[in-house]
User: Fold these one by one.
Assistant:
Number 1:
Amino acid sequence: MTTIYYVEDDRDIAENVKTYLQIRQMEVHLFYSIADAKQALLRKCPDLLLLDRNMPDGNGDELCKWIRRLWGNQLPILYLTVRGETADIVQGFQDGADDYVVKPFELEVLYSRILALLRRSGQTKETRLFCDHLSLDTDKMSVFWEQEEILLSQPEYQLLLLLMKNKGKTVTRRQLLEQVWDSNGNYVNDNTLTVTMKRLREKLHNPTCLKTIRSFGYRLEESI
């Protein structure tokens, strides 16, 4: 599991980010001061650091330089700053930050930047797909609703996988029938899809992110 340290003095923002990333199977430790973050970093190097520049007891730029002296370039640092602080962003990069996100930010944008940094540092490969509280691991062929593992039949899993891979797009009923069943040589009627989808919804606790597009098909899209 990816371990993230998040240095942030706004507790509401910190808790929202933590909840979002935990759903995506990441372990998040919050620090509301630079002093507390330093104590933790002296004990262990996480996989990634989220760093707000303006902290009550110091400046993010100074913490960046301190981290680089302690851990070198081993620790990816994602800088969080407010709009208009262009000079501060430049300073952050000079002091060792690897990337930045401007506040206010969309949680999905922050998550994509985190994954990009982890890929660059060689610490992850994208085997997980997400939508709201749902996650699917393509390597383990496992599905989770928050922290609960959901056991699916093969057609249910393949159906969810196809929708996950096309998140944000409507997948037609015909496409689902052809790719989930006909590709395996199993020719079924349209009612099979309806029944399988019904069972899938029930097992997934009827998620709001799974939409029925009447007369066309289905679509998965973020709703939180």
Number 2:
Amino acid sequence: MKIDFTGKVAVVTGATGELGRVIARTLAENGADLALHYHSNEAKAVELKSEIEALGRRVVIVKADVTKQDSIEALKETVVSSVGHVDIVVANAVVQYKWTSVLEQPAEDYASQFESCVMQSVYLAKAFIPAMIEKKAGRFIGINTECSMQNFPTQSAYVSGKRGMDGVYRVLAKEVGEHQITVNQVAPGWTISERERTNGIAESENYIQQVPLKRRGTDQEIANAVAFLASDLASFITGAYIPVSGGNVMPTI
């Protein structure tokens, strides 16, 4: 069995982020042409574009605000005119903020998480799924988090946004399944990224002791799960929330 995205176009939001870069590279390495979304880091987007073009792929970089519908619609128009209709959507972007308790968390942080988790997904669906329906094929993948199952102190804004996102994906999976479009979520644990490899891996012994596999996962392992769900190997999987956390969280039946 082999993953082959030759002839497919994928859009990755937050593609200049630590995880987004690895997801984009992995899809490209398996044959996909890429639309790389960025919000502010144009230099990193240009660098990543060059890397992926060196693999022989078509690439377009697009600046957009994923919390605004008109910006997502403009992104779609740019992508379609540059590299064609999109077969794979990966909703990876999220607004960053400082975590604190419910009583101290500013209200605007809850709004930002709702907008970047829930509404981003809604806007991306409205923009890209109609063309997938016409083609009777498509992959719609969201990056969730193990935090959605943990509900630990200081996680409230993040968890509320991601749990809301989960609801959208489960309903969407049922609404578009008849068109052979799959809708799934990958939920990373605390992941080792390029930044940590460069600057030193954070102390994590207490975390690791809770993980059955006794280690932290890597950005590549998250990207591998995304690639699997985007591939024909996962053609009968939809509506799934899949933790990639070494067993640190386990959905129950």
Number 3:
Amino acid sequence: MPELQSMFKRQRTYIMFLLVLYVLGAGFTPYYTIFMGLILGTGFSLFNLWSLVRKNRKFSEAVAANEKAKSLGTLTRIAIGALAAVVALRYPEHFHVVSMVIGLMTAYVVIIIDFFIQNLRREKKER
């Protein structure tokens, strides 16, 4: 379980770094709506990642205690994605819908990249 927390901490740091870049892009480029869509999607993506880690921890604790385990919150994550879409569609002058969808996928891309980086580090240590 500590490994899951360290992975989340690393991935959260990467996502926060991306959010800072997006804020700078929204502030200093003419692509305000695109970067705001990325900020909206990535913010909700970070919330979904946090929720998944929290539910995974509770799920693991329930399994270890031989209790009935609740779900991992798939419906919640889908609802959060739908909420982000509603916000982007309601305010198209502030949020670009396609970049919001790309932002929603940010956590998954970060997880994949982090996985490959950690595997490369492990292979390097084994040599």
